[in-house]
Amino acid sequence: MEENKIVEENKEPQDKKALVKKILVIAGNVVFYAIIIVLFLFSLMNINAGNGTQNFPNLFGKGMLSVESNSMERNEGGYHPAEWDTYGIGEIKKGDLVYDDVFNGDINSLKIGDIITFYDSVIDALNTHRIVYINTEFGYVVTQGDYIITQSSSDSHYFDATMTDVPKNDMLTSNHNYAQIVQKNDIKGVVTGVNPGAGAVLSNIRQNWLFYFVIPIAVILLIEIVFVVKNFLDLRHEKNKAELADDKEAMLLELEAEKEKMRQELLAELRAQQAAEAKTLETTPVEEKPQVEPQAEEVAEDEDTKVEEIPAEETDDEKSNEVENKEE
Fold first, then answer.
1. What is the b/e burial string over 10-49, where b = at least 16 CB atoms within 10 angstroms of the residue's CB?
2. Which of 75, 81, 87, 263 yields a CA-CA distance of 20 to 30 A from 282?
3. pLDDT of 219-244, one tens digit each?
């Protein structure tokens, strides 16, 4: 009982170590494949960014961008148009992450208040602003950042969407209002959602991709290689061990077979020898045993004994008769 208890106590720590090792291996594989999937998705998005979308990263018609400026932030003490409350997407701050659907090319699908991502030829990069005017006849929209509107306590910075004749230059300056004309072909996406603060994380990852992706993948690959080599050596060791056990068992079986063969041969020889002896006994005639005559000395002793015994009895009678006669 004590020996079984000791074995169970020794087995329990080994089981825990094996379980921890298994969990670590599974966690490492999950992290490794998650990073691989993220890299794969980023690669596809970047491929699509160079495929006629003017560097707009997207995957299956969905894209995401980190906000690098404060042009869509709002000054709480500035002017706030009443229609802002009716818009689905409000303020966008620097460091946020915006989600876009790729623009389908139909300008009639847009409406005032939508936020679009477009190619800005002034800064030679993608930009994200709100639509304040749409001209379907000439195929362009006018965009404006929320920040410039809230820089005043009145609507002096707000673009007059009731203008019927908007000049077709890229930059509009009317009553010191700042707005920008965006041609239909320059519209890349329509913002569908905002993730506060996630854009800073994405920008950080893009700037430090070597640290976040290359090094972890290299480390995980190295660990995977070590595990593969170790498993290969363990399997090889187990295979050699099994082969040695099989060889040993085969040798023992062969030895037992040889021993059994020798035993059968010995038994056959003994049986043959016994059969030969029995056959010899059957063919040999039985000899009569000679009668042994008693020796002369023994016969003489017997006769003397008889002679002495008989006369002894007669002498006693005679002596008794003589005694009686004398008394008379």
1. eeeeeeeeeeeeeeeeeeeeeebeeeeeeeeebeebeebb
2. 263
3. 877 877 887 888 888 888 888 888 88
